[in-house]
Amino acid sequence: MSHTEVEVAQIPNCDLCGQPAQFDAKIVFGPWAFLCPEHFRKLGVGLGLGRGQKLVLKVRKSLPA
After folding, report:
1. What residues pair up with 58 in beta bridges, in sequence order?
2. Is residue 39 within a helix (H) or strand (E), and if so which, with residue range?
3. pLDDT in tens, the chain (65 residues)
4. Which of 31, 38, 47, 57 is least surrounded by Cβ atoms within 10 Å, i.e. has the fewest?
């Protein structure tokens, strides 16, 4: 993974509307937030170090039987 993605155990909700978030990003107002795609497009400052990351659901591998 690059600095534009981060693995998470579960997908959080968007801090602004409650829909499933796809990004953990800095917003134009200054703070960071979990954002859905719509709010990321409107308020996010981009992806990369110090800007934001796309959330990727970590896949749990099952143990062999």
Report:
1. none
2. helix 37-43
3. 578 999 999 999 999 999 999 999 999 998 999 999 999 999 999 999 999 999 999 987 767 76
4. 31
pTM: predicted TM-score of the whole model, two decimal places: 0.85
Name all contacts of 6-12 with Cβ < 8 Å and 24+ positions apart: 6/53, 6/54, 6/55, 6/56, 7/56, 7/57, 7/58, 8/55, 8/56, 8/57, 8/58, 9/57, 9/58, 10/57, 11/55, 11/57, 12/55
Cross-sheet strand order for the sheet of 23-26:
5-8, 52-57, 23-26, 32-35
Whose tokens are 């693995």? That residue is 7
